[in-house]
TrEMBL record:
Name of the protein this chain belongs to: EAL domain-containing protein
Domain EAL intervals: 24-279
Included range, full protein: 527 to 806 of 806
Organism: Deinococcus hohokamensis
UniProt superkingdom: Bacteria
Amino acid sequence: RAKHEGKNGVRTFQPAMGDETTERVDLERDLRDALVREEFVLHYQGQFDVRTQALVGFEALVRWQHPAQGLLPPGRFIHVAEDSELILPLGAWVLREACRQAAAWGANARGFTVSVNVSAKQFDHADFAQVVRQALTDSGLDPHRLILELTESVVLRDPAAAAGQLARLRELGVRIALDDFGTGHSSLSLLRQMPIDFLKIDRSFVQDSHSADAASSRVLIGIMVTLAHGLQMQVTAEGVETSEQHALLRELGCDALQGFLLSRPLPAGQARALLDPPAA
Ligand code: C2E
Ligand code: MG
Ligand code: MG
Ligand code: MG
């Protein structure tokens, strides 16, 4: 790559702008335009009580309705937003939109939650609690209905700073979930000190629970549930795809489930229908 035969036959290397860099710069520019044109949409994935199967909440998952490439999943663009400052306006938009939608669906009266993913850069920003407060005020959403999803690395990288930020968020009345739990480097003693309300067991454990590694995955899930409950946290399992996994997670004491078995992430109109399932 980037290797060319010079006129005199000497091989030269094309410096600086490789294809990847150009692509990234293009993507960054397109993202900036997309924000202005409001090309982002949220899909909502239901979260269900493990025993009653009642809907208890939604996770808001961003997509980009790209004019040429169609609907793009976050894996295609969120890393570029995170590497630039664009995650700040994009993240603020996601928060506002998720709060607005949940309030419009009657989350306050009906008691379901809406979960929003938060990137490290957003969480580290001094204004973050203010951005959250504004989204709550503008939408009228009860703060207790909002759950912010953070990964272990975000919370544990700078524990002292994180504790301060979490305290400010707690003051607003919002709740915190630790996303993709078990994949990062958790410190048990720090976990105990952090005001965290929910652990989300990463889908890799759920999906291994009926594979060759079944026995060890089951042990690990059981330990995570015990740990969470011992620290007064609730447990959501991610990536539930089969009824066998559902049965196992129920047996192991998980509180809520999320996964394709129960519902895929859906556009708002279809997600809304999960709130009032047709009578059987
Ligand atoms: P996440 O927060 O762990 O979200 C769960 C991801 O797992 C979603 O992918 C969801 O579609 C997928 N999923 C749910 N159930 C199943 C299942 O049963 N099987 C399988 N194989 N997958 C399942 P998605 O929507 O592509 O999002 C990927 C990641 O992008 C999210 O992982 C989150 O880290 C990030 N993300 C999504 N929306 C936002 C956002 O608004 N802001 C930020 N900062 N990150 C976001
Ligand atoms: Mg999440
Ligand atoms: Mg997750
Ligand atoms: Mg994940």
